[in-house]
Specification:
Layout: H1 20-28, E1 34-35, E2 42-43, E3 53-56, H2 57-68, H3 72-84, E4 88-93, E5 96-101
Antiparallel strand pairs: 1-3, 2-4, 3-5, 4-5
Helix pairs in contact: 2-3
């Protein structure tokens, strides 16, 4: 069941986003989200993540700032909510914080 959000830091309704799941789906379609080509150099918790769509956390924050006109603190909180709801996942790749999508 998809949960709707009472307030998504001013994002609700933008780009047809009305739920946390919808926000994660929107982010996954962002042009900088790619397959991790050099997964051998990355430290994954699960080997199956090597085929997942991935983006640098910082790039995802910058995308939110430009698309949704929110500040970095709010963008970080949005990512934390998505992580807590298990809609995105995090890992390190050569010391860089990365976000990957199922």
């Amino acid at each position: 069941m998809k949960r709707t959000m009472a307030n998504l830091y001013g994002i609700k309704g933008m780009y047809n986003i009305y739920s946390w799941y919808g926000l994660a789906s929107f982010m996954e379609r962002y042009e900088k989200v790619r397959r991790c080509v050099r997964y051998n150099k990355c430290e994954y918790d699960k080997k199956s993540t090597r085929c997942k769509k991935i983006i640098k956390r910082k790039d995802l924050i910058l995308m939110q700032q430009s698309r949704f006109q929110i500040n970095e603190t709010i963008a970080e909180k949005v990512i934390d909510v998505l992580l807590n709801r298990d809609l995105v996942h995090s890992h390190q790749c050569n010391g860089t914080k990365m976000i990957y999508f199922d």
